[in-house]
Amino acid sequence: MKHSEKHYLKLDILAHIGMGISLGMGAEYFGVLATRYGASAFMLAIIGSAPFLANLFAPLWSKQSKQWGAKSLLIFSFFASALVILFMINETDPLIFSLFVLLFFLLYGISDPIYVVLAEDTYSQKTTDYLGKTEGIFSLSHALGSGIIGRLIDLFGNWIAFILAIAGNLLAGFSFLFFPNEKSSLNNDQDVRDSSPFRLFKENKDIRYLVLTFMIPGIGMLLMIPALPIIEVRLAHLSNTQIGILFGLNGIVWFLFSILWGKLADRFNIIFTIFQLSFLSLGAMALFYTYTQNFWGLLLGNIFCGIGGSAIAVGWRVQAIRFKQYETEDIAGLHLFTCGVRGLIVPFIGAFIIHQFGVNANMLIALGFLFSGFILFFQLRKKNIILNEKF
Questions:
Q1: Fewest CB atoms within 10 Å of the CB: 131, 306, 384, 386?
Q2: The pTM is what?
Q3: pLDDT tens, 111-136?
Q4: What CATH class has 5-181+188-383?
Protein backbone atom coordinates (compact mmCIF):
# COMPACT_ATOMS: atom_id res chain seq x y z
CA MET A 1 0.00 0.00 0.00
CA LYS A 2 1.45 3.34 -1.08
CA HIS A 3 1.25 6.17 1.43
CA SER A 4 1.61 9.91 0.90
CA GLU A 5 4.73 11.84 1.81
CA LYS A 6 2.82 13.52 4.65
CA HIS A 7 2.14 10.08 6.14
CA TYR A 8 5.87 9.32 6.20
CA LEU A 9 6.59 12.80 7.55
CA LYS A 10 4.41 11.96 10.57
CA LEU A 11 6.44 8.78 11.15
CA ASP A 12 9.63 10.79 10.64
CA ILE A 13 8.53 13.32 13.24
CA LEU A 14 7.77 10.48 15.66
CA ALA A 15 11.23 9.01 15.00
CA HIS A 16 12.91 12.37 15.60
CA ILE A 17 11.02 12.78 18.86
CA GLY A 18 12.54 9.45 19.91
CA MET A 19 15.98 10.55 18.75
CA GLY A 20 15.63 13.79 20.70
CA ILE A 21 14.64 11.88 23.83
CA SER A 22 17.56 9.47 23.44
CA LEU A 23 20.21 12.12 23.00
CA GLY A 24 18.65 14.75 25.26
CA MET A 25 17.97 12.46 28.18
CA GLY A 26 20.93 10.16 27.68
CA ALA A 27 23.90 11.16 25.54
CA GLU A 28 23.69 14.84 26.52
CA TYR A 29 24.48 13.83 30.10
CA PHE A 30 27.24 11.33 29.43
CA GLY A 31 29.94 13.95 29.94
CA VAL A 32 28.26 15.32 33.06
CA LEU A 33 27.83 11.86 34.61
CA ALA A 34 31.40 10.89 33.77
CA THR A 35 32.64 14.10 35.41
CA ARG A 36 30.69 13.25 38.56
CA TYR A 37 32.15 9.72 38.43
CA GLY A 38 35.61 11.30 38.58
CA ALA A 39 36.61 11.34 34.90
CA SER A 40 39.79 13.21 33.97
CA ALA A 41 40.00 15.72 31.13
CA PHE A 42 41.38 12.98 28.88
CA MET A 43 38.46 10.67 29.68
CA LEU A 44 36.13 13.54 28.84
CA ALA A 45 38.05 13.91 25.58
CA ILE A 46 37.24 10.26 24.82
CA ILE A 47 33.56 11.01 25.37
CA GLY A 48 33.77 14.21 23.37
CA SER A 49 35.51 12.54 20.45
CA ALA A 50 33.19 9.51 20.42
CA PRO A 51 30.67 10.93 17.91
CA PHE A 52 33.52 11.93 15.64
CA LEU A 53 35.17 8.54 15.77
CA ALA A 54 31.83 7.19 14.55
CA ASN A 55 31.98 9.68 11.68
CA LEU A 56 35.18 8.06 10.41
CA PHE A 57 33.03 5.12 9.38
CA ALA A 58 30.49 7.27 7.51
CA PRO A 59 31.95 6.43 4.06
CA LEU A 60 31.66 2.74 4.93
CA TRP A 61 27.99 3.08 5.91
CA SER A 62 27.32 5.22 2.83
CA LYS A 63 28.75 2.42 0.70
CA GLN A 64 26.87 -0.31 2.55
CA SER A 65 23.59 1.58 2.26
CA LYS A 66 23.76 0.96 -1.48
CA GLN A 67 24.02 -2.76 -0.88
CA TRP A 68 22.01 -3.39 2.30
CA GLY A 69 19.56 -0.50 2.10
CA ALA A 70 19.44 2.71 4.13
CA LYS A 71 16.28 1.69 5.99
CA SER A 72 17.81 -1.54 7.36
CA LEU A 73 20.99 0.20 8.52
CA LEU A 74 19.01 2.97 10.17
CA ILE A 75 16.88 0.56 12.19
CA PHE A 76 19.92 -1.50 13.21
CA SER A 77 21.66 1.68 14.41
CA PHE A 78 18.92 2.56 16.89
CA PHE A 79 18.28 -0.93 18.23
CA ALA A 80 21.97 -1.80 18.68
CA SER A 81 22.83 1.49 20.42
CA ALA A 82 19.85 0.99 22.76
CA LEU A 83 21.40 -2.30 23.85
CA VAL A 84 24.65 -0.54 24.74
CA ILE A 85 22.79 1.95 26.95
CA LEU A 86 21.29 -1.00 28.82
CA PHE A 87 24.78 -2.16 29.83
CA MET A 88 25.74 1.37 30.98
CA ILE A 89 23.07 1.70 33.67
CA ASN A 90 25.09 0.37 36.62
CA GLU A 91 28.59 1.28 35.38
CA THR A 92 30.32 3.95 37.48
CA ASP A 93 34.00 3.36 36.66
CA PRO A 94 34.81 6.50 34.60
CA LEU A 95 37.13 4.72 32.16
CA ILE A 96 34.77 1.82 31.42
CA PHE A 97 31.86 4.26 31.23
CA SER A 98 33.79 6.33 28.68
CA LEU A 99 34.46 3.24 26.56
CA PHE A 100 30.75 2.37 26.63
CA VAL A 101 30.02 5.89 25.38
CA LEU A 102 32.47 5.27 22.56
CA LEU A 103 30.67 2.06 21.57
CA PHE A 104 27.27 3.77 21.80
CA PHE A 105 28.25 6.48 19.36
CA LEU A 106 29.92 4.02 16.98
CA LEU A 107 26.54 2.31 16.59
CA TYR A 108 24.29 5.36 16.86
CA GLY A 109 26.49 7.22 14.37
CA ILE A 110 25.47 4.84 11.59
CA SER A 111 22.25 6.83 11.32
CA ASP A 112 23.93 10.18 10.54
CA PRO A 113 24.89 9.64 6.87
CA ILE A 114 22.04 7.18 6.26
CA TYR A 115 19.03 9.27 7.29
CA VAL A 116 19.69 11.86 4.58
CA VAL A 117 19.56 9.11 1.95
CA LEU A 118 16.25 7.78 3.25
CA ALA A 119 14.79 11.29 3.39
CA GLU A 120 15.81 12.05 -0.18
CA ASP A 121 14.23 8.81 -1.41
CA THR A 122 11.03 9.36 0.58
CA TYR A 123 10.34 13.05 0.00
CA SER A 124 10.42 14.05 -3.65
CA GLN A 125 9.00 17.56 -3.50
CA LYS A 126 9.69 19.29 -0.20
CA THR A 127 12.85 17.64 1.04
CA THR A 128 14.48 20.88 2.23
CA ASP A 129 11.39 22.05 4.06
CA TYR A 130 10.86 18.63 5.66
CA LEU A 131 14.50 18.44 6.77
CA GLY A 132 14.09 21.76 8.53
CA LYS A 133 10.92 20.54 10.22
CA THR A 134 12.33 17.20 11.39
CA GLU A 135 15.52 18.87 12.66
CA GLY A 136 13.34 21.36 14.49
CA ILE A 137 11.20 18.62 16.05
CA PHE A 138 14.34 16.73 17.06
CA SER A 139 15.84 19.79 18.71
CA LEU A 140 12.59 20.59 20.54
CA SER A 141 12.33 17.02 21.82
CA HIS A 142 16.02 17.17 22.73
CA ALA A 143 15.46 20.47 24.55
CA LEU A 144 12.50 19.27 26.58
CA GLY A 145 14.23 15.99 27.39
CA SER A 146 17.50 17.54 28.48
CA GLY A 147 15.62 20.27 30.33
CA ILE A 148 13.71 17.91 32.62
CA ILE A 149 16.08 14.97 32.92
CA GLY A 150 18.45 16.85 35.21
CA ARG A 151 15.64 17.30 37.71
CA LEU A 152 14.59 13.66 37.31
CA ILE A 153 18.16 12.53 38.00
CA ASP A 154 18.24 14.64 41.15
CA LEU A 155 14.95 13.05 42.26
CA PHE A 156 15.32 9.41 41.23
CA GLY A 157 18.98 8.76 40.35
CA ASN A 158 21.00 8.26 37.19
CA TRP A 159 19.12 5.13 36.10
CA ILE A 160 16.09 7.12 34.93
CA ALA A 161 18.17 8.82 32.22
CA PHE A 162 19.30 5.50 30.75
CA ILE A 163 15.82 3.95 30.73
CA LEU A 164 14.29 6.94 28.96
CA ALA A 165 17.18 7.04 26.46
CA ILE A 166 16.55 3.37 25.61
CA ALA A 167 12.85 4.14 25.12
CA GLY A 168 13.71 6.98 22.73
CA ASN A 169 15.98 4.75 20.65
CA LEU A 170 13.30 2.08 20.38
CA LEU A 171 10.69 4.65 19.36
CA ALA A 172 12.95 5.88 16.55
CA GLY A 173 13.75 2.37 15.35
CA PHE A 174 10.14 1.20 15.28
CA SER A 175 9.01 4.39 13.49
CA PHE A 176 11.44 3.82 10.62
CA LEU A 177 10.22 0.23 10.28
CA PHE A 178 7.15 1.59 8.49
CA PHE A 179 9.11 3.66 5.97
CA PRO A 180 9.21 2.55 2.33
CA ASN A 181 12.21 0.74 0.94
CA GLU A 182 14.55 2.89 -1.10
CA LYS A 183 13.69 3.59 -4.71
CA SER A 184 17.00 2.29 -5.95
CA SER A 185 20.29 0.83 -4.75
CA LEU A 186 23.50 -0.19 -6.39
CA ASN A 187 24.21 -3.89 -6.49
CA ASN A 188 27.34 -3.87 -8.58
CA ASP A 189 30.52 -3.79 -6.51
CA GLN A 190 32.34 -1.77 -9.15
CA ASP A 191 29.65 0.91 -9.09
CA VAL A 192 29.83 1.10 -5.33
CA ARG A 193 33.61 1.39 -5.35
CA ASP A 194 33.65 4.02 -8.11
CA SER A 195 31.12 6.19 -6.28
CA SER A 196 33.19 6.27 -3.08
CA PRO A 197 33.01 9.63 -1.27
CA PHE A 198 36.81 9.80 -1.28
CA ARG A 199 36.61 10.32 -5.03
CA LEU A 200 34.95 13.67 -4.36
CA PHE A 201 37.94 14.95 -2.42
CA LYS A 202 40.37 13.67 -5.02
CA GLU A 203 38.74 15.05 -8.15
CA ASN A 204 37.01 18.26 -7.03
CA LYS A 205 39.28 21.13 -6.01
CA ASP A 206 36.40 23.21 -4.64
CA ILE A 207 35.55 20.43 -2.18
CA ARG A 208 39.20 20.17 -1.16
CA TYR A 209 39.26 23.92 -0.55
CA LEU A 210 36.11 23.67 1.57
CA VAL A 211 37.43 20.83 3.69
CA LEU A 212 40.69 22.62 4.44
CA THR A 213 39.00 25.95 5.16
CA PHE A 214 36.42 24.48 7.51
CA MET A 215 39.18 22.78 9.46
CA ILE A 216 39.93 26.14 11.10
CA PRO A 217 36.59 26.85 12.86
CA GLY A 218 36.18 23.10 13.28
CA ILE A 219 39.25 22.98 15.49
CA GLY A 220 37.86 25.83 17.57
CA MET A 221 34.58 24.07 18.24
CA LEU A 222 36.19 20.77 19.12
CA LEU A 223 38.74 22.29 21.48
CA MET A 224 35.87 23.33 23.74
CA ILE A 225 34.39 19.84 24.14
CA PRO A 226 36.36 18.65 27.22
CA ALA A 227 36.15 22.10 28.80
CA LEU A 228 32.37 22.55 28.87
CA PRO A 229 31.44 19.92 31.52
CA ILE A 230 34.42 20.96 33.65
CA ILE A 231 33.17 24.56 33.66
CA GLU A 232 29.57 23.53 34.35
CA VAL A 233 30.28 21.01 37.09
CA ARG A 234 33.57 21.99 38.76
CA LEU A 235 33.88 25.75 38.22
CA ALA A 236 30.27 26.98 38.13
CA HIS A 237 29.14 24.23 40.56
CA LEU A 238 25.80 23.77 38.79
CA SER A 239 23.31 21.14 39.88
CA ASN A 240 21.90 18.58 37.44
CA THR A 241 18.68 20.61 37.38
CA GLN A 242 20.54 23.79 36.39
CA ILE A 243 22.52 21.97 33.72
CA GLY A 244 19.23 20.59 32.43
CA ILE A 245 17.89 24.13 32.11
CA LEU A 246 20.98 25.09 30.08
CA PHE A 247 20.53 22.13 27.77
CA GLY A 248 16.81 22.75 27.49
CA LEU A 249 17.15 26.39 26.50
CA ASN A 250 19.88 25.46 24.04
CA GLY A 251 17.51 22.98 22.43
CA ILE A 252 14.56 25.37 22.26
CA VAL A 253 16.70 27.98 20.51
CA TRP A 254 18.03 25.21 18.25
CA PHE A 255 14.42 24.26 17.41
CA LEU A 256 13.34 27.80 16.52
CA PHE A 257 16.38 28.54 14.40
CA SER A 258 16.28 25.13 12.66
CA ILE A 259 12.90 26.10 11.21
CA LEU A 260 14.31 29.47 10.19
CA TRP A 261 17.46 28.04 8.58
CA GLY A 262 15.40 25.42 6.71
CA LYS A 263 13.36 28.16 5.06
CA LEU A 264 16.30 30.49 4.43
CA ALA A 265 18.27 27.64 2.84
CA ASP A 266 15.84 27.78 -0.08
CA ARG A 267 17.52 31.06 -0.98
CA PHE A 268 20.91 29.59 -1.84
CA ASN A 269 22.75 32.90 -2.08
CA ILE A 270 22.54 33.50 1.71
CA ILE A 271 23.94 30.15 2.86
CA PHE A 272 27.39 31.76 3.16
CA THR A 273 26.05 34.33 5.61
CA ILE A 274 24.27 31.64 7.63
CA PHE A 275 27.49 29.72 8.17
CA GLN A 276 29.40 32.85 9.11
CA LEU A 277 26.75 33.71 11.68
CA SER A 278 27.20 30.24 13.14
CA PHE A 279 30.92 30.90 13.71
CA LEU A 280 30.20 34.21 15.43
CA SER A 281 27.48 32.65 17.61
CA LEU A 282 29.72 29.82 18.76
CA GLY A 283 32.47 32.36 19.43
CA ALA A 284 30.07 34.28 21.65
CA MET A 285 29.37 31.05 23.53
CA ALA A 286 33.10 30.63 24.14
CA LEU A 287 33.31 34.16 25.58
CA PHE A 288 30.47 33.60 28.05
CA TYR A 289 31.90 30.27 29.19
CA THR A 290 35.32 31.88 29.68
CA TYR A 291 34.44 35.09 31.49
CA THR A 292 31.22 34.42 33.43
CA GLN A 293 31.25 30.83 34.72
CA ASN A 294 27.98 31.29 36.55
CA PHE A 295 24.50 30.05 35.78
CA TRP A 296 23.22 33.16 34.00
CA GLY A 297 26.33 33.63 31.90
CA LEU A 298 26.32 30.00 30.80
CA LEU A 299 22.61 30.36 30.01
CA LEU A 300 23.43 33.11 27.51
CA GLY A 301 26.26 30.99 26.13
CA ASN A 302 23.83 28.16 25.40
CA ILE A 303 21.49 30.51 23.54
CA PHE A 304 24.32 31.36 21.16
CA CYS A 305 25.23 27.67 20.90
CA GLY A 306 21.69 26.86 19.77
CA ILE A 307 21.79 29.56 17.10
CA GLY A 308 25.14 28.47 15.67
CA GLY A 309 24.69 24.74 16.00
CA SER A 310 21.28 24.67 14.28
CA ALA A 311 22.64 26.53 11.25
CA ILE A 312 25.29 23.89 10.76
CA ALA A 313 22.96 20.94 11.41
CA VAL A 314 20.44 22.03 8.78
CA GLY A 315 22.96 23.47 6.35
CA TRP A 316 25.11 20.41 5.69
CA ARG A 317 22.09 18.15 5.09
CA VAL A 318 20.55 20.57 2.60
CA GLN A 319 23.80 20.95 0.70
CA ALA A 320 24.44 17.20 0.62
CA ILE A 321 21.15 16.81 -1.23
CA ARG A 322 21.59 19.82 -3.49
CA PHE A 323 25.02 18.91 -4.80
CA LYS A 324 23.63 17.02 -7.80
CA GLN A 325 27.04 16.28 -9.31
CA TYR A 326 27.52 13.51 -6.73
CA GLU A 327 25.41 11.02 -4.79
CA THR A 328 23.87 12.37 -1.58
CA GLU A 329 25.27 9.52 0.49
CA ASP A 330 28.78 10.22 -0.84
CA ILE A 331 28.59 13.90 0.12
CA ALA A 332 27.26 12.94 3.55
CA GLY A 333 29.94 10.28 3.96
CA LEU A 334 32.79 12.65 3.07
CA HIS A 335 31.39 15.40 5.26
CA LEU A 336 31.11 13.16 8.31
CA PHE A 337 34.45 11.50 7.68
CA THR A 338 36.29 14.84 7.68
CA CYS A 339 34.44 15.80 10.86
CA GLY A 340 35.56 12.50 12.33
CA VAL A 341 39.23 12.99 11.47
CA ARG A 342 39.52 16.25 13.36
CA GLY A 343 37.03 15.21 16.02
CA LEU A 344 39.16 12.21 16.91
CA ILE A 345 42.25 14.35 17.48
CA VAL A 346 41.29 17.86 18.58
CA PRO A 347 39.42 17.08 21.85
CA PHE A 348 42.58 15.38 23.13
CA ILE A 349 44.58 18.47 22.22
CA GLY A 350 42.00 20.46 24.17
CA ALA A 351 42.46 18.13 27.14
CA PHE A 352 46.24 18.64 26.97
CA ILE A 353 45.82 22.42 26.90
CA ILE A 354 43.49 22.23 29.90
CA HIS A 355 45.97 20.06 31.78
CA GLN A 356 48.92 22.36 31.05
CA PHE A 357 47.39 25.85 30.94
CA GLY A 358 43.86 25.66 32.33
CA VAL A 359 40.30 25.77 31.05
CA ASN A 360 40.22 29.50 30.25
CA ALA A 361 43.29 29.30 28.03
CA ASN A 362 41.68 26.44 26.13
CA MET A 363 38.49 28.44 25.56
CA LEU A 364 40.34 31.54 24.35
CA ILE A 365 42.37 29.49 21.86
CA ALA A 366 39.11 27.96 20.62
CA LEU A 367 37.66 31.45 20.21
CA GLY A 368 40.64 32.44 18.07
CA PHE A 369 40.07 29.52 15.70
CA LEU A 370 36.35 30.29 15.40
CA PHE A 371 36.95 33.94 14.57
CA SER A 372 39.67 32.98 12.08
CA GLY A 373 37.14 30.75 10.33
CA PHE A 374 34.73 33.66 10.11
CA ILE A 375 37.41 35.78 8.40
CA LEU A 376 38.55 33.00 6.04
CA PHE A 377 34.97 32.38 5.01
CA PHE A 378 34.88 35.68 3.13
CA GLN A 379 37.20 34.04 0.61
CA LEU A 380 34.73 31.18 0.17
CA ARG A 381 31.98 33.70 -0.49
CA LYS A 382 34.09 35.30 -3.22
CA LYS A 383 34.69 31.91 -4.83
CA ASN A 384 30.93 31.14 -4.74
CA ILE A 385 31.62 27.54 -3.74
CA ILE A 386 28.73 25.21 -2.92
CA LEU A 387 28.95 24.30 0.77
CA ASN A 388 28.80 20.65 1.77
CA GLU A 389 30.98 20.65 4.87
CA LYS A 390 30.75 21.51 8.53
CA PHE A 391 33.07 21.30 11.49
A1: 384
A2: 0.72
A3: 877 887 787 777 766 666 677 778 77
A4: mainly alpha
